[in-house]
Amino acid sequence: MFYRPEDGHGLPHNPFNAIVTPRPIGWISSRAADGTNNLAPYSFFNAVAYVPPQVMFASTGEKPDRDGTKDSVANIAETGVFCVNIVEYAARDTMNASSAALDKDQDEFTAAGIAAIECETIDCGRVQGAPASLECKLTQIVTLPGAANRLVLGEVTGIHMRDDCLRDGRFDVTTFQPLARLGYRDYARVTEVFELARPDD
């Protein structure tokens, strides 16, 4: 099968998200200029550089009360900071609850019953007990083609790792089984890993 996206795929559901998988989930916490906390999961998320460490996430929708974007992007544009919280399998239901479309003055931490704790290097809350959290300062917001597509890039200024996720000096993802987004309504979790050495190692 071949199709051009502008012509449509002819399938019951869009296959694009099912093709580009698995995708890590960035559970993005932000704070509005008025102090309102926000928490939302984004599956267009990844690390993009080592030195300095940098990450990205993309927002692809909008809310009526946010002038062409979503709360996370609007908050980050106002304050210049955000935090990426890593989602473990055990938190799948609370992560999903935080994806509800709430008014901009509502706090998803409170609405979903998620404990928040302050970051160290930025003025923002983070998910207490997350396997890892990356405190970030905004470097740029890029407007992408499409009605409400925004790419947010940030430099990591602080890294939290839960002590029980460290084994023999390594951050061991099998201790918490990170949640990954697939296509449609599908998710996966990492339960085992293996190593491959590069030919020039």
UniProtKB/TrEMBL annotation:
Instruction: Provide the Flavin reductase like domain boundaries.
Output: 18-173
Q: What Pfam families does this protein map onto?
A: Flavin_Reduct (PF01613)
Gene3D superfamilies from the UniProt entry: Electron Transport, Fmn-binding Protein, Chain A
The protein's superkingdom reads Bacteria
Instruction: Read off the SMART domains from this record.
Output: Flavin_Reduct
GO molecular function terms here?
Answer: FMN binding; oxidoreductase activity, acting on the CH-NH group of donors, NAD or NADP as acceptor
Q: Cite the SUPFAM superfamilies for this sequence.
A: FMN-binding split barrel
This one is known as NADH-FMN oxidoreductase RutF, flavin reductase (DIM6/NTAB) family
What is the originating organism of this protein?
Sedimentitalea nanhaiensis
Lineage of source species: Bacteria, Pseudomonadati, Pseudomonadota, Alphaproteobacteria, Rhodobacterales
